[in-house]
User: Which sequence fits this backbone?
């Protein structure tokens, strides 16, 4: 049987992986200039367009940056947790949409992780983060607020709680939990939820953070998890076809 040659897409993906692995291993350090396209083309025995595609893949992952001019080229990027948030959110959203994960499983994961932030956030939250949460509570109380705007406000509220822990690794890990799982939960429960009840729980969370009482924050999050699960169970049970 005749062997098929790898496509340019396969080759560019392989080159991108090799360079990415070198960056992760520390063989290529921050701000180090990568070999030229011509040198990479010779090193990997591929065309320059294939190398160019590999570099585009790495740039899309924020692993490298390109500069023009005489001193230009491709350089290893200094990636921050904030830069990595969109990838974490996108990956989490894809996993939730492409794999069979129950609402209860997603809900359990999200609140377990968020509750882990509560003690740290109670001690470290800033005045600005607390103000953001209060502003979102006020926004949520507006009678004309659309479901889409409510979801965005809900995400901002919980994002402030998580970021209040002042731990970039936790914030990064929870980017997917808050900004991917939260819309899923809102999408399922929006027809049944009581905004007033959720606002009351959000207020308890903000009050607990302001008083630096982690137990109060945790208690309100537990109540919010139970309420969310009950809403979903009620909604999903009504969607089941009636048995004859």
Assistant:
């Amino acid at each position: 049987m005749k062997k098929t040659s790898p496509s340019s897409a396969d080759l560019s993906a392989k080159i991108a992986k090799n360079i990415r692995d070198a960056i992760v291993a520390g063989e290529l350090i921050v701000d180090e200039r990568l070999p030229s396209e011509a040198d990479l083309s010779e090193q990997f025995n591929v065309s320059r367009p294939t190398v160019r595609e590999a570099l585009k893949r790495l740039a899309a992952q924020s692993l490298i940056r390109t500069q023009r001019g005489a001193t230009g080229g491709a350089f290893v990027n200094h990636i921050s947790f904030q830069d990595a948030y969109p990838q974490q959110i996108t990956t989490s959203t894809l996993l939730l949409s492409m794999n069979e994960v129950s609402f209860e499983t997603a809900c359990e994961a999200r609140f377990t992780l968020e509750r882990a932030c509560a003690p740290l956030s109670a001690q470290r939250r800033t005045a600005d983060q607390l103000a953001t949460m209060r502003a979102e509570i006020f926004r949520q109380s507006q009678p004309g607020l659309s479901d889409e705007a409510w979801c965005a406000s809900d995400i901002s509220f919980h994002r402030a709680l998580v970021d209040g822990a002042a731990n970039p690794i936790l914030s990064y890990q929870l980017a997917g939990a808050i900004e991917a799982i939260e819309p899923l939960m809102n999408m399922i429960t929006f027809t049944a939820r009581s905004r007033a009840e959720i606002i009351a729980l959000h207020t308890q969370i903000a009050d607990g953070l302001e008083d630096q009482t982690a137990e109060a924050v945790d208690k309100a999050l537990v109540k919010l998890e139970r309420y969310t699960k009950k809403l979903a169970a009620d909604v999903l049970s009504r969607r089941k076809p009636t048995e004859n």
User: Anything to note?
Assistant: The first strand starts at residue 64 and ends at 67.
